[in-house]
Protein backbone atom coordinates (compact mmCIF):
# COMPACT_ATOMS: atom_id res chain seq x y z
CA UNK A 1 0.00 0.00 0.00
CA UNK A 2 2.81 2.40 0.85
CA UNK A 3 4.36 1.85 -2.60
CA UNK A 4 1.04 2.75 -4.24
CA UNK A 5 0.81 5.90 -2.17
CA UNK A 6 4.40 6.77 -3.02
CA UNK A 7 3.79 6.23 -6.74
CA UNK A 8 0.60 8.27 -6.56
CA UNK A 9 2.50 11.05 -4.81
CA UNK A 10 5.29 10.98 -7.39
CA UNK A 11 2.76 11.18 -10.21
CA UNK A 12 0.98 14.07 -8.50
CA UNK A 13 4.22 16.00 -7.99
CA UNK A 14 5.29 15.35 -11.58
CA UNK A 15 2.00 16.78 -12.82
CA UNK A 16 2.45 19.76 -10.51
CA UNK A 17 5.94 20.53 -11.84
CA UNK A 18 4.80 20.06 -15.44
CA UNK A 19 1.96 22.54 -14.87
CA UNK A 20 4.45 24.99 -13.35
CA UNK A 21 6.66 24.63 -16.42
CA UNK A 22 3.79 25.39 -18.79
CA UNK A 23 2.23 28.13 -16.66
CA UNK A 24 5.51 29.84 -15.62
CA UNK A 25 4.88 29.59 -11.89
CA UNK A 26 6.59 28.14 -8.84
CA UNK A 27 5.64 25.95 -5.90
CA UNK A 28 7.08 25.51 -2.39
CA UNK A 29 9.96 23.02 -2.09
CA UNK A 30 8.87 19.42 -2.54
CA UNK A 31 11.16 18.03 0.16
CA UNK A 32 9.83 20.47 2.75
CA UNK A 33 6.27 19.36 2.04
CA UNK A 34 7.12 15.66 1.73
CA UNK A 35 10.19 14.90 3.90
CA UNK A 36 10.15 11.21 3.00
CA UNK A 37 11.01 11.78 -0.66
CA UNK A 38 14.25 10.10 -1.78
CA UNK A 39 16.50 10.77 -4.76
CA UNK A 40 14.95 7.72 -6.42
CA UNK A 41 11.52 9.31 -5.91
CA UNK A 42 12.84 12.55 -7.34
CA UNK A 43 14.16 10.79 -10.42
CA UNK A 44 10.80 9.03 -10.87
CA UNK A 45 9.08 12.44 -10.66
CA UNK A 46 11.50 13.86 -13.23
CA UNK A 47 10.91 10.95 -15.61
CA UNK A 48 7.13 11.23 -15.26
CA UNK A 49 7.27 14.96 -16.06
CA UNK A 50 9.54 14.19 -19.02
CA UNK A 51 6.99 11.69 -20.31
CA UNK A 52 4.42 14.48 -20.28
CA UNK A 53 6.77 16.72 -22.25
CA UNK A 54 7.36 13.98 -24.82
CA UNK A 55 3.61 13.37 -25.06
CA UNK A 56 3.31 17.11 -25.74
CA UNK A 57 5.59 16.72 -28.77
CA UNK A 58 9.06 17.30 -27.34
CA UNK A 59 12.00 15.08 -28.29
CA UNK A 60 14.93 14.17 -26.02
CA UNK A 61 18.22 15.38 -27.55
CA UNK A 62 20.61 14.94 -24.63
CA UNK A 63 21.29 15.01 -20.92
CA UNK A 64 22.76 17.42 -18.42
CA UNK A 65 24.78 17.38 -15.24
CA UNK A 66 24.24 20.09 -12.69
CA UNK A 67 25.67 21.32 -9.40
CA UNK A 68 29.10 19.94 -10.28
CA UNK A 69 31.38 22.79 -9.20
CA UNK A 70 32.05 23.96 -5.65
CA UNK A 71 31.02 27.51 -6.63
CA UNK A 72 27.56 26.36 -7.68
CA UNK A 73 27.20 23.89 -4.78
CA UNK A 74 27.99 26.63 -2.28
CA UNK A 75 25.64 29.09 -3.99
CA UNK A 76 22.68 26.68 -3.99
CA UNK A 77 23.46 24.73 -0.81
CA UNK A 78 23.32 21.45 -2.75
CA UNK A 79 26.46 19.40 -2.27
CA UNK A 80 26.21 16.62 -4.82
CA UNK A 81 25.68 16.64 -8.59
CA UNK A 82 22.26 16.25 -10.17
CA UNK A 83 21.13 15.15 -13.61
CA UNK A 84 18.38 15.84 -16.10
CA UNK A 85 17.24 15.63 -19.70
CA UNK A 86 17.44 18.05 -22.64
CA UNK A 87 14.71 18.33 -25.26
CA UNK A 88 14.55 19.98 -28.66
CA UNK A 89 12.35 22.80 -27.34
CA UNK A 90 15.01 23.64 -24.77
CA UNK A 91 17.64 24.10 -27.51
CA UNK A 92 17.59 27.81 -28.38
CA UNK A 93 19.13 29.24 -31.53
CA UNK A 94 19.22 33.03 -31.53
CA UNK A 95 17.77 35.29 -28.85
CA UNK A 96 16.25 33.85 -25.70
CA UNK A 97 12.70 35.12 -25.36
CA UNK A 98 12.14 34.68 -21.63
CA UNK A 99 8.36 34.46 -21.84
CA UNK A 100 8.23 32.30 -24.96
CA UNK A 101 10.86 29.96 -23.52
CA UNK A 102 8.75 29.57 -20.39
CA UNK A 103 11.48 30.86 -18.07
CA UNK A 104 10.57 32.04 -14.56
CA UNK A 105 13.73 32.92 -12.62
CA UNK A 106 16.57 32.18 -15.08
CA UNK A 107 20.26 32.14 -14.32
CA UNK A 108 23.06 31.79 -16.86
CA UNK A 109 26.01 29.45 -16.52
CA UNK A 110 28.95 28.84 -18.86
CA UNK A 111 29.71 25.21 -19.64
CA UNK A 112 31.53 22.82 -21.94
CA UNK A 113 29.16 20.78 -24.09
CA UNK A 114 29.90 17.31 -25.48
CA UNK A 115 28.48 15.87 -28.69
CA UNK A 116 28.66 12.08 -28.56
CA UNK A 117 29.47 9.91 -31.58
CA UNK A 118 29.15 6.64 -29.64
CA UNK A 119 26.81 5.60 -26.84
CA UNK A 120 27.93 5.25 -23.22
CA UNK A 121 26.24 3.17 -20.55
CA UNK A 122 27.41 2.64 -17.00
CA UNK A 123 28.51 1.23 -14.73
CA UNK A 124 32.27 1.42 -15.22
CA UNK A 125 32.49 4.27 -17.75
CA UNK A 126 35.77 6.19 -17.45
CA UNK A 127 36.79 9.70 -18.48
CA UNK A 128 39.02 8.17 -21.15
CA UNK A 129 36.04 6.32 -22.61
CA UNK A 130 34.07 9.56 -22.61
CA UNK A 131 36.79 11.28 -24.66
CA UNK A 132 36.89 8.37 -27.10
CA UNK A 133 33.08 8.47 -27.51
CA UNK A 134 32.97 12.25 -28.08
CA UNK A 135 32.78 13.69 -31.56
CA UNK A 136 33.32 17.28 -30.43
CA UNK A 137 33.26 19.67 -27.51
CA UNK A 138 31.78 23.14 -27.70
CA UNK A 139 31.19 26.29 -25.61
CA UNK A 140 27.64 26.59 -24.33
CA UNK A 141 25.37 28.50 -22.00
CA UNK A 142 22.88 26.58 -19.96
CA UNK A 143 20.08 28.78 -18.69
CA UNK A 144 19.00 27.12 -15.50
CA UNK A 145 15.59 27.81 -14.04
CA UNK A 146 13.59 26.54 -11.10
CA UNK A 147 9.95 25.74 -10.64
CA UNK A 148 10.68 25.86 -6.88
CA UNK A 149 9.98 29.14 -5.07
CA UNK A 150 12.98 31.48 -4.82
CA UNK A 151 15.45 28.73 -5.71
CA UNK A 152 15.00 27.19 -2.23
CA UNK A 153 16.14 23.80 -3.47
CA UNK A 154 17.69 20.69 -2.01
CA UNK A 155 18.96 17.73 -4.01
CA UNK A 156 15.50 16.11 -4.12
CA UNK A 157 13.90 19.32 -5.40
CA UNK A 158 16.40 19.89 -8.17
CA UNK A 159 16.49 16.27 -9.39
CA UNK A 160 12.67 16.17 -9.47
CA UNK A 161 12.64 19.48 -11.38
CA UNK A 162 14.79 18.10 -14.24
CA UNK A 163 17.98 19.33 -12.60
CA UNK A 164 16.64 22.90 -12.63
CA UNK A 165 17.12 23.08 -16.38
CA UNK A 166 15.55 25.82 -18.47
CA UNK A 167 17.06 26.13 -21.95
CA UNK A 168 20.51 25.99 -23.53
CA UNK A 169 22.49 27.72 -26.28
CA UNK A 170 25.43 26.13 -28.12
CA UNK A 171 28.30 28.05 -29.67
CA UNK A 172 29.25 27.35 -33.28
CA UNK A 173 32.67 25.82 -32.60
CA UNK A 174 33.05 22.02 -32.70
CA UNK A 175 36.49 20.88 -31.53
CA UNK A 176 38.05 17.44 -31.10
CA UNK A 177 38.43 16.85 -27.33
CA UNK A 178 41.70 15.00 -27.97
CA UNK A 179 43.19 18.35 -29.05
CA UNK A 180 42.84 19.88 -25.57
CA UNK A 181 43.60 19.22 -21.93
CA UNK A 182 40.05 19.61 -20.66
CA UNK A 183 40.86 20.37 -16.99
CA UNK A 184 42.93 23.40 -18.02
CA UNK A 185 40.45 24.89 -20.50
CA UNK A 186 39.82 28.49 -19.44
CA UNK A 187 36.48 30.29 -19.75
CA UNK A 188 35.83 33.99 -19.32
CA UNK A 189 32.32 35.43 -19.14
CA UNK A 190 31.01 38.97 -19.61
CA UNK A 191 27.57 40.37 -18.83
CA UNK A 192 26.44 43.42 -20.81
CA UNK A 193 30.03 43.99 -21.85
CA UNK A 194 31.53 43.97 -18.35
CA UNK A 195 33.73 41.15 -17.00
CA UNK A 196 31.63 38.80 -14.88
CA UNK A 197 33.45 35.58 -14.05
CA UNK A 198 36.05 33.06 -15.14
CA UNK A 199 36.76 29.43 -14.48
CA UNK A 200 38.60 26.31 -15.60
CA UNK A 201 37.60 22.83 -16.68
CA UNK A 202 38.91 21.35 -13.46
CA UNK A 203 36.09 23.13 -11.57
CA UNK A 204 33.77 20.37 -12.81
CA UNK A 205 34.68 17.24 -10.81
CA UNK A 206 38.33 17.66 -11.77
CA UNK A 207 37.52 17.44 -15.48
CA UNK A 208 34.38 17.77 -17.61
CA UNK A 209 35.06 14.27 -18.93
CA UNK A 210 34.93 12.92 -15.37
CA UNK A 211 31.58 14.64 -14.93
CA UNK A 212 30.21 12.99 -18.09
CA UNK A 213 31.53 9.62 -16.88
CA UNK A 214 29.73 10.20 -13.56
CA UNK A 215 26.54 10.94 -15.49
CA UNK A 216 26.87 7.78 -17.61
CA UNK A 217 27.41 5.66 -14.51
CA UNK A 218 24.64 7.32 -12.49
CA UNK A 219 22.07 7.04 -15.27
CA UNK A 220 23.28 3.52 -16.07
CA UNK A 221 22.03 2.47 -12.64
CA UNK A 222 18.55 3.50 -13.85
CA UNK A 223 18.92 1.71 -17.18
CA UNK A 224 19.48 4.92 -19.15
CA UNK A 225 22.15 5.22 -21.87
CA UNK A 226 23.97 8.31 -23.13
CA UNK A 227 23.14 7.86 -26.81
CA UNK A 228 25.22 8.57 -29.90
CA UNK A 229 24.16 12.02 -31.09
CA UNK A 230 23.31 13.21 -27.59
CA UNK A 231 24.35 16.68 -26.46
CA UNK A 232 25.72 16.48 -22.92
CA UNK A 233 26.07 19.60 -20.76
CA UNK A 234 28.86 18.89 -18.31
CA UNK A 235 28.21 21.48 -15.59
CA UNK A 236 28.99 25.11 -14.92
CA UNK A 237 32.57 26.35 -14.70
CA UNK A 238 31.47 29.59 -13.02
CA UNK A 239 28.88 30.83 -10.49
CA UNK A 240 25.32 31.20 -11.76
CA UNK A 241 24.17 34.69 -12.69
CA UNK A 242 20.55 35.92 -12.75
CA UNK A 243 19.31 37.10 -16.14
CA UNK A 244 16.54 39.46 -17.21
CA UNK A 245 15.32 40.77 -20.56
CA UNK A 246 17.98 43.00 -22.09
CA UNK A 247 20.94 41.11 -20.62
CA UNK A 248 23.64 39.83 -22.95
CA UNK A 249 26.09 37.19 -21.74
CA UNK A 250 29.17 36.29 -23.74
CA UNK A 251 31.62 33.51 -22.98
CA UNK A 252 34.98 32.71 -24.48
CA UNK A 253 36.21 29.16 -24.05
CA UNK A 254 39.79 29.96 -24.89
CA UNK A 255 41.24 27.83 -27.67
CA UNK A 256 37.79 26.44 -28.51
CA UNK A 257 35.30 29.19 -29.32
CA UNK A 258 32.64 31.62 -28.12
CA UNK A 259 28.95 31.55 -27.24
CA UNK A 260 26.37 34.31 -26.65
CA UNK A 261 23.16 34.26 -24.63
CA UNK A 262 20.98 37.28 -25.40
CA UNK A 263 17.76 37.72 -23.40
CA UNK A 264 14.72 39.54 -24.79
Describe the protein's architecture and organization.
The protein is an alpha+beta fold. Helix content is about 30%, strand content about 30%. It is built from seven helices and eleven strands. Strands 1, 2, 3, 4, 5, 8 and 9 form a seven-stranded mixed sheet that branches. A four-stranded antiparallel sheet has the order 7-6-10-11, with no helix packed on it. Helix 1 packs across helix 3 and helix 5 packs across helix 7. The N terminus is likely disordered.
Helix content: 25-40%
Give unreliable regions as ranges.
1-5
- Note the beta-strand portion: 25-35%
What string gives the helices and strands in order? HHHEHEEHEHEEEHEEEE
Helices and strands: which structural class? alpha+beta
Biggest sheet descriptor: 7 strands, mixed
Radius of gyration: 17 Å
Q: Tell me, what's the shape? A: globular
Multimerization state: single chain
The beta-strand count equals 11
* Count of runs of 4 or more consecutive helical residues: 7
Gap between N and C termini: 49 Å
Mean pLDDT: 94
List keywords for this structure.
single chain; 264 residues; alpha+beta; 7 helices; disordered N terminus
Amino acid sequence: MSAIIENDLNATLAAELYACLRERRTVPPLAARHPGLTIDDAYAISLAALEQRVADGERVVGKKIGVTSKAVQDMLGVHQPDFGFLTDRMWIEGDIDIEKAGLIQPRAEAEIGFLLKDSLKGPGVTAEQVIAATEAIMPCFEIVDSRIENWKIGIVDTVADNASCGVFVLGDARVDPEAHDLPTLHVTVTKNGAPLSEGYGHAVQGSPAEAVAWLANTLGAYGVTLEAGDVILSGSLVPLEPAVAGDVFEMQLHGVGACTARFV
